[in-house]
RNA sequence: GCCCCUGUAGCUCAGUGGAUAGAGCGGCUGCCUUCUAAGCAGCGGGUCGCAGGUUCGAAUCCUGCCGGGGGCACCA
């Protein structure tokens, strides 16, 4: 039972004793920013003042009195402050308890949750067209998708990562045309792909002079390249789902036929329309063009029907760039029309990523590839950099700045903390110091402000992971791990673990604190997909 | 015109409706005889775009306005 639960329960019990009707369904408990406001704080007296028929200060005072009379475990004092906050001052024992939990659960178990209860969630991300290498614009979100997958997994979901391969249609045809043009030594068509990589592929191509064959061949080669780029970032997909396969299987026809049965489909102007306005879209959408061809939407709906109704995922999260914003409403509407309950499909839109030098475009060949970026600054810096801020924030990647600042990239700050920990352990072994079992160590000796900062940080990780999961916000883990690293560096600087003037008992206690910090760093870096080096 | 993001320190950004809004970078100044100085500490820096509203309490929620980015095909 966590301290928060203990406090919440005792507050509820106290409210019941005070005959507050109705009791709140949950008691908000937070960690005040300022130390003088205690270790934990609740606003419950303000939110329940009306129900109690008393002023917030009065209710808070009554609560504080009751809670002080029979203090819950770890509680040293209960105080009323400000407009009616109930502030809990805890004994340091709660932080020592928290450290024990970290150590007991370890890297495997700490900050793990069962919120997903094993439900199957599919994450679709990247899904960049195989018409050119993965560039910084469409690759930036790949760390987000992968980290979100890791976080969902830690919170109890069964996670499947999927890349939707757009291996059909006009873009592949244009790729084929561009390839053949290059092979002939001619200029690529105006709408074609101008990049140097097309010339390289053309030199390697010895297939037939057929646009379709050439396009498919090139797309296959490019996809291999994208796959290896992603693997270099430790991103591995469970499924590479081919758009062509869904078209060839007849699933698109089936899906449209299903929709025709729903009265959400009508014919007009020689085309077949989805009445998506009936389910929240701003306009109706075409499913079958007047020339008999299916639209992209029809294929996309067939694909999503496959996800939900064929493969049976409980939940699907599509991660798109903001330039796909226009297709979200119709996709959601179409999926609902297929009878998939609301909320099972989620679309996360990442705002634009651009280069300081200008716009990126595959067609013009003007882009910086992920391979170049990774070669420049390494996979760890690449991942952490792209997981620093919310995906709601448009990002401008300034390569010049990144190269110049690569040594002061926050990733090193965090990894350095882990390397220092490993170093402490090496020295410990060299000096033949044994770490005693934690239950034989007096953790009460950990009372230095720097030590308490580290412990407090560690105790917050489970909450941080859960919030990051619920809000689909991996960057919260990044924020946390930087915070922990900051506290660890402070501790490292001020608190020698094995110095001569440090007593053996304190050394033992600090060794366990260091172990706790190691676990916290390892868990968080693992969720972000950043390595935790033993030395730097 | 409609839809989605966004506006917080010189710059890049954090900030689950809480109390005196934070960090990194850049600038200046200190700290290596101990386990890694890729570190620590200090100084300076703010009308949280503007105006209303909801609330005991708003950077956070609602409305309007202004600025920035993106999207609004019988393209994919």
Instruction: Assign the CATH architecture of the largest domain.
Output: 3-Layer(aba) Sandwich
CATH secondary-structure class of the largest domain: Alpha Beta
- Residues in β-strands, percent: 5-15%
- Number of strand elements: 14
CATH superfamily of the largest domain: HUPs
Total DSSP helices: 19
Structural class: alpha/beta
Indicate the overall shape: globular
Helix proportion of residues, in percent?
A: 40-55%
Instruction: Compute the average pLDDT.
Output: 93
The number of distinct structural domains comes to 3
Structure in words:
By secondary structure, the protein is α/β, with parallel strands linked by helices. The protein is globular, with a radius of gyration of 28 Å. It folds into 3 domains: 89 residues, Arginyl tRNA synthetase N-terminal domain (Gyrase A, domain 2); 280 residues, Rossmann fold (3-Layer(aba) Sandwich); 120 residues, Isoleucyl-tRNA Synthetase, Domain 1 (Orthogonal Bundle), CATH 1.10.730.10. It has 19 helices and 14 strands. The mean pLDDT is 93. The strands form 4 sheets. Strands 7-6-5-11-12 form a 5-stranded parallel β-sheet, with helices on both faces. Strands 1-2-4-3 form a 4-stranded antiparallel β-sheet. Strands 8-9-10 form a 3-stranded antiparallel β-sheet. Helix 5 crosses helix 19, helix 7 crosses helix 9 and helix 17 packs parallel to helix 19. It binds one RNA strand of 76 nucleotides through strand 9, strand 10, helix 12, helix 16 and helix 17.
